[in-house]
Structure formats: C-alpha cells, structure tokens
Amino acid sequence: MSQQSIPLLSVVGYAAAAITDYTFVSPDGTLTATAAANSLGVADSTAAGTGDAYKIVVAGTARVRCAAAIAKGAAIDVGATGQATTHAAGIPVARALEAAAGAGSIIEVLLIPN
Fold first, then answer.
1. How far is it, in rounded angstroms, from Cα 36 to Cα 67?
2. Distances in Å between the alpha carbon of 102 and those of 6, 16, 95, 96?
3. Which residues constitute the domain of residue 9?
4. Pseudo-torsion of CA 66, 70, 73, 74, nearest 10°?
5. What span, in angstroms and rounded, lies between the C-alpha atoms of 50 and 100?
C-alpha cells in the first residue's frame, strides 16, 4: 500500500450517500462514480452519509482502492463501486504509479483530467 500522494488540487464534496475513502467520485462530487464513467477525482476521506463533507483530490497523485490486480504504468478506469481497474472500456481517469497485487490493494495513481 502506498503511503504517499501529492495532491495539487483538492476540493470539498458533500455526499448524497455514503462514500468510501480512496474511491473515484462522480463528476458532481456527490456519489461514488459509476463504472467506465468520468470522475471528478478521488475521495481522500470517508463520508458516512447524506450531507457529510469530505475531501476530493482532483489533480496530482492520489491513493486509490483497486478492484483487481493492476500493473505499474497501466491506464486506469473507474470500476465497480468506484474502485480502480485496468483500462478496458470507457474513459481512462488515471495512470498507475505502482502495481496492485489484487482486490482491496491501495496504490498511488496520477490523475488524468477527464
């Protein structure tokens, strides 16, 4: 698990539902991003429910939770439940800066504006 990230720009989001830390969030910042979709950025903290404020990293590097193994350097898509997955379809939202061993791994990625 990466212990570092270098956020260049972070914003505050207000959740419309529970949001898990280190997952991609929807373009309006209120929900977990849907699979193969655009993303505003990565939740850097957890939001327990509606109206909770949380930090979203929108530029720079961020830590993300992975849905499966990912190779270092691979393009990243939003996968199920907002977790990172290797780019197969949809819109690449990040590039892996380290490898992920499997589901649940947390790695550092370089965010790609989308």
1. 13
2. 23, 29, 16, 13
3. 1-114
4. -90
5. 31
Residue 94, beta-bridge partner list? 76, 111
Is the pTM higher than 0.85? The answer reads yes
User: How are beta strands 75-78 and 53-65 bridged, if at all?
Assistant: unpaired
In the DSSP assignment, the letter for residue 81 is G
| Total number of domains in the chain | 1
Contact 46, 100 (CB under 8 A): no
The single residue listed with the structure tokens 């907002």 is: 82
pLDDT tens digit at each of 114 positions of the chain = 556 888 999 999 999 999 999 999 998 888 888 888 899 999 999 999 899 999 999 999 999 999 999 999 999 999 889 999 999 987 899 999 999 999 999 999 999 998
Q: Which helix (H) or strand (E) holds 108?
A: strand 106-111
Q: How far apart are CA 50 and CA 41, in angstroms?
A: 19
By the 8 A CB rule, do 111 and 94 touch? yes
